[in-house]
Amino acid sequence: MVDxxxxxxxxxxxxxxxxxxxxxxxxxxxxxxxxxxELLINEGSKRNDVFYIxxxxxxxxxxxxxxxxxxxxxxxxxxxxxxxxxxxxxQSSRFFYEALENTEVFFIDYDVLQxxxxxxxxxxxxxxxxxxxxxxxxxxxxxxxVLLTPEERYLRFVKDYPGITNRVQDKYIANVLxxxxxxxxxxxxxxxxxx
Amino acid sequence: MVDxxxxxxxxxxxxxxxxxxxxxxxxxxxxxxxxxxELLINEGSKRNDVFYIxxxxxxxxxxxxxxxxxxxxxxxxxxxxxxxxxxxxxQSSRFFYEALENTEVFFIDYDVLQxxxxxxxxxxxxxxxxxxxxxxxxxxxxxxxVLLTPEERYLRFVKDYPGITNRVQDKYIANVLxxxxxxxxxxxxxxxxxx
DNA sequence: TTTATAAATTATCTTTTGTTAACGCCTTTA
DNA sequence: TAAAGGCGTTAACAAAAGATAATTTATAAA
Lengths: 195, 195
Known about the structure:
The structure is a homodimer. By secondary structure, the first copy, chain A, is α+β, with helices and mostly antiparallel strands. Chain A is 48% helix and 23% strand. Chain A has a domain at 4-119: Jelly Rolls. In chain A, the strands form two sheets. In chain A, strands 1-8-3-6 form a four-stranded antiparallel β-sheet. A four-stranded antiparallel β-sheet of chain A has the order 2-7-4-5. In chain A, β4 and β5 (69-76) form a beta hairpin. In chain A, α4 (110-119) packs across α5. The radius of gyration of chain A is 18 Å and the shape is globular. The relative contact order of chain A is 0.15. At the A-B interface, α3 and α5 of A face α3 and α5 of B. Chain A binds a DNA duplex through α8.
């Protein structure tokens, strides 16, 4: 039923979890996979599931006034995808969550997860861990906008997400950095000519 | 000892807290005040206290390579100031936290708070509330950098922080928006001439 | 493999921002 | 009260970024 490989896969979720706690989680979680270009969560969705990405890559985007897709976030394997608008703000999703690669996930309904956590206190530690990781990531991104130039921001991004440039289109990365694809292209050239 | 006024003051901390829970918090918390320009937390500090701002205003800043102060965040009354580097990342503070106005606070050691929370489950709800509010604020700031122009970002800022322009120097606001004070001045002029 | 489509680069031009410095205004300090 | 310092605005110039379109390169479809 629950083999060791799956346990190892989920293990990066939180380091303090015992095998028993992981089994409790896994028992309640469902497996699923999304093909490239498939949506995990649609705009306007009230889908309440929390996804753990076993493998693959998801992008979070919305569509602006001009009808352009703007990518806000790239979420690779071993991270969590959730409808934050619903879970944190009690509103339907303002964003699309799309698989950029074939993506394998565990998922579990947030209310079920809440209940699980309340009955298994050890899971609370893990919940805190996930929340804190989200907070850390978000705060560091704010810092990068305030303290760094776009060029420095790009260099930090490729350092923080090694190999991401080979997996994701530049235009998505440009969006995440808050600049245009054309500008990113120029920045890359500037960096290249420095060396 | 604990009068109603103080309870009302702290009440905005979390809406689900009962009077009893608040009293538990207040009993463990200490009162303090900081004069304008005084530091709540110094760079390099391992101070472990969580401050609740009863009244006043705090700015979080650091000093860049060129020796310039860069303001990352402004924190007004009814919000929480804490050494996030220590609490979330177990490192000494990379930032200064300075009172911009005479500032009244409650504060409580984070470890003591942790212990309190573990012994008073209702407080856990509040803890979650504070964390989620930090996360929401941080994520919305990221969004504003990705989706908005500096001008739009400024307009949203003054909307989200009503009256802030009368309390804080423009150069701090410029930093928070990720632009220079000169650029902010031009943006303000541009907005003014539109109307 | 060829064709069609999309993405990245490059070019051109416009707009905005950064940088530095000067000026006037206001507040603080001596 | 006078002097000093800081702040916001403005100006002038340089650098970077946005917008748009053309070109090349890469990818996907037929």
